[in-house]
Amino acid sequence: MTKIKTQYNRRSFIKVSAAASGGMLIGFSWLNGCKPNTSLDTGVAIPKEWFDINGYIKIGDTGMVTIFSPNPEIGQNVKTSMPMIVAEELDVPWENVVVEQAPLNTGFYQNQFAGGSLSIRLSWNALRMAGATGRRMLLEAAAKEWGVEVSSLTASEGVIKENSGERSVSYGEIASKAVGIEIPEEVDLKDLKDFKLIGTSKKNVDGRKIVTGEPLYGLDFHREGMKLAMIQHPPAFGMTVKDFNKEEIKNMPGVTDAFIIDTTIDEPGWFDEKGFNHLIAIVGDSTWELMQAKKAIKAEWETVSEPENSDIHIEKLEKALVSGEVEESRKDGNADAAFKKAAKIIERTYSAPFIAHNTLEPMNFFANVTENSAELVGPTQTPESLEGSVSKLLNMPLENITVDMTRIGGGFGRRLYVHFGVEAAAISKKIGGPVKLIYTREDDMSQGTYRPTYRSTYKAGLDENNNLIAFSVKGAGLPEGPVFPNRFPAGTVENYSAEKIKAETNVTTGAWRAPRSNFTAGAEQSFLDEVAEAAGKDPIDFRLELFNRAINDPIGEKHDYEAERYAGVLKLVKEKANWGETKPGVHRGVAAYFCHASYVAEVMDIIMENGQPIVDKVWCAVDCGIVVNKDGAKNIIEGGVVDGIGHAMYSQLTFENGTAKESNFDKYQLIRHSQAPKKIEVFFVENEIDPTGLGEPGLPPAMAALANALYKATGQRHYHQPFSTERKLVG
Amino acid sequence: MANFNLKVNGKNEQVDVDPATPMLWVLRDHLKLVGTKYGCGIAQCGACTIHLGDNAVRSCQLPVSAVNDQDITTIEGLSENGDHPVQKAWMEVDVYQCGYCQAGQIMNASAFLKNNPNPTDEEIEGAMNGNICRCGTYTRIKKAIKEAASSENA
């Protein structure tokens, strides 16, 4: 067993217990109107009395256990996997567990955000410790009750037994006594071989609620007496609102108020990125009437910076690649000199457009701001940042602000940014009462915070024996360049150069699922496919050769990845897909990528039907260390693959006069059923490494596996996303 | 504004709204049945799918004034206890990620299976193409529809 020091004291537990009680109340009342929760799929009766063990765990007198899930649930399934880790160490049957979303509590929980595929990775120890602490306290309570040593007892499956076999007591029966036990300073964690829950597959804890349409999401939140609100932002980036037909709008049916809000935050942080500070807000009683009022707005807009279009964006990127400011770089050997000596040189340019996150649940938030308090409820990936920004906006101390998290109808990075919660607070303050702000799809898609547009040039030099002797990449983005200088193939090539170049735009951008990796993987891995072909080598063998170099004789001081694990996923996918086997009419591509501390390799099979490519099957090999919830983990990788194919193939924003022409799903194409792969299989490398995340790593390699398989199917290389509309440009 | 008598999930309801109000907002704002979701408002994403009689329709494009005496079924009324074969298959396959689109997917799939109890893969794709899943759970949705079909035919 591993001993681990607990990182919290009695006071922090008491603090969180109080907050957690609030969370409990919320879970059972605010969405369900105080009626008993009828959809508990547990094997035990609903308790009469609950006992707070610690901020993560409550145990009822019947043995039912409530586990609080600290992080926002955006579809990555942490609301199931995080409590599984707690339940594992507590050692309680999963059937006895109900899960509740914890509210924001920065004093107790750590890293309460959903981003960077970090939830499980950063909370692994804290969650294990929470469960182990609970188990230890129950053991101590039983030992005290019976007047025996803790070492003479064993806790398992929600029951404490004397090793002699004499007495036993269930967690539910002893829970009331555990409340008075001192928090242990040190607890034992289980050996990995003793895991009973971790590594199995448990179904989504909200599954029944999802399929029966229970209120779960921010948009579903209702508070008696609350108003609804909508915003109107300027029609283009570079514009601001001066005035509008306020009186006319106020007199429209169902409208109770209309005004301009200023949501400027002093010293804005990274999460305060937003399209517009000044917005028209309309308040009323029904969504439909607000939508009609929005259409009747006649506003005076002012242009404050030049409206951009897509041609300007391409020009800016091309210029940046020639003479832009290099933010970050790496040089090993002398790439320029090596290119001069090379027998073969391959040089290609790749690009990708701005794209929107398009979470299916549009932005929304509930706020109730009074003179001394602010209550916020809704879908946010960063509740702590929201609290901070609202504190600045209202000039109100943090402790007077609460944030509760609803289930979230998609994140993808969009809800890392907090402006819609801040806007709800500004509107609530102005009207002096509770309000739920709702974006229309068009508001959502045209507001910005897009994935930046990128352009990169890759160059490779092979010697007469087809060894890779030089490699360079130069990447520019609006605004951030898509280059990770220390990632693969850094460490594998004698002469290496990477330059990350920034450029400016007035279009607002933000983190979009697997930021930059969502482009670099597609570019780099399809470029290497071409280089392998030029070298006359199998694309997997070619990569493995490079990894061998990084393992045996790495170039340079460091690189970001572990070459063994990188090679490991390629070997696994090679085996599972039976790489090398050819089938008539089936065209294969492969790619591998490392990001967010996880390794994923994918093989994709494409067949052509009536001249159209169909993705027939995808094999994924994943190394994310220990897998917590196996089928849930497969699901998120499958989703990443579909997302990667969809955005590489179909999606883009095109700009005219400072605004995207696509503002809804009639023009903005998202992947649909008939375009999705027919089959996806996911395999995990088995090891005992602490778990890393899965929300993002499945997506990036899919873009390249697709490009490489398309090449095999059609003979055409793809350089410019989206591939379905790719102009024939010189690569 | 006008009064409308509606039959929603077997219950008689009366609402006083603008006749142009789409059923989506009548359900969500006035009847507090929020299982039906807003995604695009222009019948492109399918999140708002309900049954009008036996047919799947996009409630964002169905004005309350066009409903008349036709039965409306929403996700809340698809079954008593979440035990419609399609709902059960969705839970069995553990289809969802964020879950937001799934009420619409389930309503569309259940109406489709009623008309075509034993569909081919191509028929499923065709029938479901109007329902976007932004998380990309399409392969699981298809699997669940096939499981629901085979459990119905068993």
Automatic annotation (TrEMBL), chain A:
Q: Which Pfam families match?
A: MoCoBD_1, MoCoBD_2
List UniProt keywords, sorted A-Z.
Membrane, Oxidoreductase, Transmembrane, Transmembrane helix
This entry's Enzyme Commission designation comes to 1.3.99.16
What is the uppermost EC class here? oxidoreductase
The domain of life is Bacteria
Please list the GO terms describing molecular function.
isoquinoline 1-oxidoreductase activity
InterPro entries xrefs: Ald_Oxase/Xan_DH_a/b (IPR000674), Ald_Oxase/Xan_DH_a/b_sf (IPR036856), AldOxase/xan_DH_MoCoBD1 (IPR008274), AldOxase/xan_DH_MoCoBD2 (IPR046867), AldOxase/xan_DH_Mopterin-bd_sf (IPR037165), N-heterocyclic_Hydroxylase (IPR052516), OxRdtase_Mopterin-bd_su_IorB (IPR012368)
Q: Where is the Aldehyde oxidase/xanthine dehydrogenase a/b hammerhead domain?
A: 212-305
Enumerate the transmembrane spans: 12-31
Would I find tRNA processing among this entry's keywords? no
PANTHER family, alphabetized: ALDEHYDE DEHYDROGENASE (PTHR47495:SF2)
Record-given protein name: Isoquinoline 1-oxidoreductase beta subunit
Q: Report the source organism.
A: Saonia flava
UniProtKB/TrEMBL annotation, chain B:
Q: Where does the UniProt annotation place the signal sequence?
A: none
The EC number of this protein is 1.3.99.16
The protein's UniProt keywords, in alphabetical order, are:
2Fe-2S, Iron, Iron-sulfur, Metal-binding, Oxidoreductase
Does the record's keyword annotation contain Oxidoreductase?
yes
Q: In this protein, which residues make up the domain named 2Fe-2S ferredoxin-type?
A: 2-78
GO terms of molecular function: 2 iron, 2 sulfur cluster binding; isoquinoline 1-oxidoreductase activity; metal ion binding
Check the record and name the Pfam families matching this protein.
Answer: Fer2, Fer2_2
Q: Which domain of life is it from?
A: Bacteria
InterPro entries hit by this protein: 2Fe-2S-bd, 2Fe-2S-bd_dom_sf, 2Fe-2S_ferredoxin-like_sf, 2Fe-2S_ferredoxin-type, 2Fe2S_fd_BS, Beta-grasp_dom_sf, Diverse_Oxidoreductases
Specify the enzyme's EC class, one word: oxidoreductase
Q: Which PROSITE patterns match?
A: 2FE2S_FER_1 (PS00197), 2FE2S_FER_2 (PS51085)
Matching SUPFAM superfamilies, A to Z? 2Fe-2S ferredoxin-like, CO dehydrogenase ISP C-domain like
Q: Which PANTHER family match?
A: BLR6218 PROTEIN, OXIDOREDUCTASE WITH IRON-SULFUR SUBUNIT
Q: What is this protein called?
A: Isoquinoline 1-oxidoreductase alpha subunit
Q: Which organism is it from?
A: Saonia flava
Q: What is this organism's lineage?
A: Bacteria, Pseudomonadati, Bacteroidota, Flavobacteriia, Flavobacteriales
